[in-house]
Write a structure and sequence with these properties.
Structural class: mainly alpha
Helix content: over 70%
Distance between the termini: 33 Å
CATH class: Mainly Alpha
Strand content: under 5%
Number of strands: 0
Number of domains: 1
Radius of gyration: 20 Å
CATH architecture: Up-down Bundle
CATH superfamily: MFS general substrate transporter like domains
Length: 414
């Protein structure tokens, strides 16, 4: 008789589905705009300020998706929301790939910008429902690292598909989004999230969202969104400004950032070892240094390389930190609480590109990066409470706990 190959545990399936979804929605649909910005600017003749406005418009759509997730997640469950995100990513990227004018380009970018808003927060509920309690925080910390793996793929594609061929890369991104959407539709649960009858039900009023321990979480998310949006939108443009057409420095920089960002798979052990307070300080100092290097020496290869190496793991790990931190602050309804957290992140992403793009038009892009680095440093006092790091006390019934095999551990496999 043939031996059956070992089946993946439910936790592994959720981890793979989440990593893939974050890759296509963040790494391709959202951040692909910054990677291909030199080609897009050249084809559509966009000013720096208009680039910033378009970037902010994509983040407004992201914010709208987050609001819908906060309203709909408890009723419909993770599956339809993640599927909506995947489909908006695919449709938006196809519109961008075949845009005949600025209007069609912006429409596609805005539609693609919806996708990560739909496809990130629902995994808080998916993990809570499907993954055994002892493995949840590591899986949550692992999922955002999918962005880094997508960035690694996108960078070489940008080298191959430079100039007018950039549209073929966006077509490939769209096809990948469709494939990932089908996989998630098969894996994720739908329907309301039924919790244990011992868990008291709370009304989701302002007081529920405005609990005291959530304030530093919201401040950190706001700053993280702002500085991240500025870097992802303008970094490749900054390092490519004085280069000849077709120079691979920008895509290579992007790829190095993605490779460094794969260290985000160690976010779980990193947080466990340092604690959330020290982890938050380390990550924001790393991102501040990375952004400042582009402000000081955007044309110097050592500075550009150091910026990519510092920013990649700092940004990816901070996503995981926010997911774990939010889960501990809002254990009763993880997806709704995380939607509120990412809502503040979304506000930062809207403010960042437009405000800093306008600032760069009046002063310089280097000055805008230095200002952004200063904002990252000012975030340091908004730290998790001293009790952060304790596991959430709420354990749901239903699908969760049915599979107790090993989950994807952030320190072993990505």
């Amino acid at each position: 008789m043939r031996e059956r190959s070992p089946r993946l545990s439910v936790a592994w399936k959720v981890g793979i589905a989440g990593v893939a979804a974050q890759g296509v929605t963040f790494g391709f649909a959202r951040y692909g705009y910054g990677l291909f910005l030199p080609e897009i600017r050249g084809q559509f003749d966009l000013s720096v300020s208009l680039v910033g406005v378009i970037g902010s418009a994509t983040y407004i759509s992201y914010l709208i998706a987050l609001m819908l997730v906060g309203i709909l997640s408890a009723r419909f469950g993770p599956r339809p929301l993640v599927v909506a995100g995947g489909l908006s990513a695919a449709a938006g990227m196809l519109l961008v790939a075949y845009a005949q004018g600025t209007g069609m380009l912006i429409t596609g970018l805005v539609m693609a910008g919806l996708s990560p808003g739909f496809a990130w927060a629902p995994y808080s509920d998916a993990v809570d429902r499907m993954v055994p309690v002892r493995q949840r925080e590591r899986v949550m910390a692992l999922i955002p690292s999918g962005t880094a793996f997508a960035v690694i793929i996108a960078g070489p594609l940008a080298i191959i598909a430079h100039g007018p061929s950039w549209q073929y890369a966006w077509t490939a991104f769209a096809l990948a989004a469709l494939a990932v959407t089908v996989y998630n539709a098969r894996i994720l649960p739908g329907g309301p999230h039924h919790r244990s009858p011992r868990t008291p039900q709370q009304r989701l009023g302002l007081r529920w969202f405005a609990r005291r321990q959530a304030v530093p979480l919201y401040v950190t998310a706001l700053s993280y969104g702002l500085i991240g949006a500025v870097y992802w939108t303008f970094a490749v443009d900054a390092v490519s400004q004085d280069l000849k057409e077709g120079d691979p420095t920008g895509p290579v920089f992007w790829t190095v950032m993605g490779l460094a960002g794969t260290a985000g798979v160690f976010t779980g052990p990193f947080i466990e070892r340092l604690g959330q307070r020290r982890a938050q300080a380390c990550l924001f100092l790393s991102m501040a240094a990375a952004i400042a290097l582009l402000g000081v020496a955007p044309g110097a290869l050592p500075a550009v390389g150091a910026s990519a190496v510092l920013y990649g793991p700092g940004f990816m790990a901070c996503s995981g930190l926010l997911a774990v931190w939010s889960y501990q602050v809002f254990p009763e309804q993880p997806s709704t609480g995380f939607s509120a957290t990412v809502f503040f992140l979304g506000i930062g992403t809207i403010i960042g590109p437009a405000a800093l793009g306008s600032f760069a038009d009046h002063y310089s892009l280097s000055a805008a990066f230095l200002l952004t680095a200063g904002i990252a440093v000012l975030t340091l006092p908004a730290r998790p409470g001293r009790a952060a790091g304790r596991p959430a006390a709420v354990t749901p019934v239903g699908e969760a706990g049915a599979d107790t095999s090993d989950a994807p551990r952030a320190g072993t496999r990505g």
